[in-house]
Amino acid sequence: MTKWVRCEADGAVFYGVLEGDGVALHDGAPWAKPLSLGRIVALKSVRLLAPVQPATFVGLWNNFHAAAAKAGNAIPTTPLYFLKATGSIANPEAEIAPPASYVGRTLYEGELGVVIGAVCRNVDEAAAEAAIFGYTCVNDVTALDLLSADASFAQWARAKSCDGF
Which among 51, 67, 80, 130 is most buried, taking Cβ atoms within 10 Å? Predict the structure, then answer.
């Protein structure tokens, strides 16, 4: 299995492949068939960055059936999703801090991230699966008290899109 990373080395941003205690740097995103630069740098000499910079960040809600049943929620017949602002993406080891004005509860949830490596719309299941580049870990952070601050309108984007969430 190839383990891709996004990193900063010598003041520039690269994608690279982990090779032991080094990173083999590439020119371009991994799903775009990047060229190897023929250069391996020590892992300890780079700063790891968020693995991707997506144009759109979609989160599925209530897709874990056991959790839905435990919460008394119906199993959805179609995917229920929310969008997260791309500014909510943080680098590894970054401090996760709620906005200074927020004093409520903050939840941290480990999630599986699916990285889509090709543009696709209105495709069948096989084409959607073929567009998957790979997977990553996601820490889905929520300012819980913002979510339902207004009973007439749930604030999914606001509660999950704080900078660095």
Answer: 51
pLDDT at site 141: 96
- Here the tokens at position 19 are 């090779």
Inform me whether the pLDDT recorded for 67 exceeds 90: no
* Contacts of 66 by beta carbon, 8 Å cutoff, 6+ apart: none
Locate 42 and state its tokens. 């020590």
Write out pLDDT tens, residues 28-49. Answer: 999 999 999 999 999 999 999 9
Q: How far is CA 93 from CA 5, 49, 52, 113, 116, in A?
A: 14, 9, 15, 18, 24
Q: Residue 37: left if φ>0, alpha if ψ -120 to 50, beta else—which one? A: alpha
Q: How many residues does the chain have?
A: 165
